């Protein structure tokens, strides 16, 4: 798996320039057509994390490798990515069209936390296939972005942020069943947010020397200065899942990523995921997938 790609590296690899305002305190935004991005001298997208947010309107058959999943796009879709999860595109046919925009977290400073939206949730599948009518709506939003970014209007950043929010809500309304519970205590929400943030902070594993520190509910509770029962109740109330289920799910997701996109041996992966023995990791993986790690790696390669 490739290391994290910076916004500067993105511009250098695709356009041979770095905008002057790329790291200013107000944040950075830009929008492109996919034709422009996929020029004759373009390089393939490598499976990696990026240190910026990205929203892509894909028109054409495509295969997306996202975290531990492979998602086939049959015709057209919206795809949301965040700095936490690695991904890459694999075009299936010669028809490539659409748009994408990139922006830094600072672009939304004081305008909300993007990680609170389901489309940027690490556990979600942020791909939304579109009908022709939905495509027309998304296409018009990207065209408005292009007009605003090219204008000299003083407050164009506000308008662009509104258009990004419009895309977020447009996508989330397609899948209302993914809504989070709205009736909960503020304390449970705060505790669950801190737990999820601490869990996600341990990932992704990008170096063979990197190792996660917390694997059990009691370890997370201790780190958060909570009784483990208090943590478990809050997490169950907010997510409908136990703390152990969320931890195991995230560890399993990372295990699949490492088996599919690195050449590390099973012992190295087991150590990185804080298993004392490779056999413990083998048992954990087979319990949740029905396959041992090497059989999973072999099947993922085909």
Automatic annotation (TrEMBL):
InterPro entries: Homeodomain-like_sf, HTH_AraC. The keyword DNA-binding applies. Residues 189-299 form the HTH araC/xylS-type domain. Keywords: DNA-binding, Transcription, Transcription regulation. Pfam families: HTH_18 (PF12833). Transmembrane segments: none annotated. SUPFAM superfamilies: Homeodomain-like. The keyword Nucleus does not apply. It comes from the Bacteria. This is Helix-turn-helix transcriptional regulator. The lineage of its organism: Bacteria, Pseudomonadati, Bacteroidota, Flavobacteriia, Flavobacteriales.
